[in-house]
């Protein structure tokens, strides 16, 4: 019986690719390829192969249906560019894009910030103003030290709390 149990335990070994993400070993980072003057490159490499959430805000005062339509266009454009993203509408003007490979998060951020109806995009806690951001809200983003100038901009979830 003991030998049979040992055989079963050996057969239960799960391959690395089949393990849940939190149990997989992270891919090695080659620091010789990282430019120290570009911290974004290090973030890209450290998030490669991990799930990352990208938050986007639609400008104006759209209804949830309008937000659904606008962000659906963004998602299909990303899909046509071979980016595997899932979209979840979480408020009347807020959406989450879930990426299976976080290494592409900054490319997707660049795409979203270039859209006419995008007010801002948040990746890894950093808020980036979009094309539709007003001059007032652009000044509330992050400064050079990475700290937010305005507490309201740092925690945008507070204003959406009642909507959920």
UniProtKB/TrEMBL annotation:
Compartment(s) of residence: Endoplasmic reticulum
Family annotation (InterPro entries): MESD
Sorted UniProt keywords: Chaperone, Endoplasmic reticulum, Signal, Wnt signaling pathway
Comp. bias (Acidic residues): 9-18
Keyword Transmembrane helix: no
GO biological process terms, semicolon-separated: protein folding; Wnt signaling pathway
Transmembrane segments: none
Any one Gene Ontology cellular component term annotated for this protein: endoplasmic reticulum
Chain residue ranges for the region called Disordered: 1-38, 129-164
Record bears the keyword Signal: yes
Family: Belongs to the MESD family.
Record-given protein name: LRP chaperone MESD
């Amino acid at each position: 019986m003991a030998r049979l149990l040992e055989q079963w335990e050996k057969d239960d070994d799960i391959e690395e690719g089949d393990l849940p993400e939190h149990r997989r070993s992270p891919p090695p980072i080659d620091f010789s390829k990282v430019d120290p003057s570009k911290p974004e490159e290090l973030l890209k490499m450290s998030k490669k192969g991990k799930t990352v959430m990208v938050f986007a805000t639609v400008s104006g005062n759209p209804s949830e249906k309008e937000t659904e339509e606008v962000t659906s266009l963004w998602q299909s454009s990303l899909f046509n560019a071979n980016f595997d993203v899932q979209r979840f509408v979480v408020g009347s003007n807020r959406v989450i894009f879930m990426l299976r490979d976080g290494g592409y998060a900054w490319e997707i951020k660049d795409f979203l910030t270039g859209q006419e109806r995008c007010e801002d995009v948040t990746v890894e806690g950093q808020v980036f103003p979009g094309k539709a951001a007003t001059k007032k809200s652009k000044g509330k983003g992050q400064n050079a030290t990475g700290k937010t100038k305005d507490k309201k901009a740092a925690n945008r979830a507070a204003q959406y709390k009642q909507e959920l």
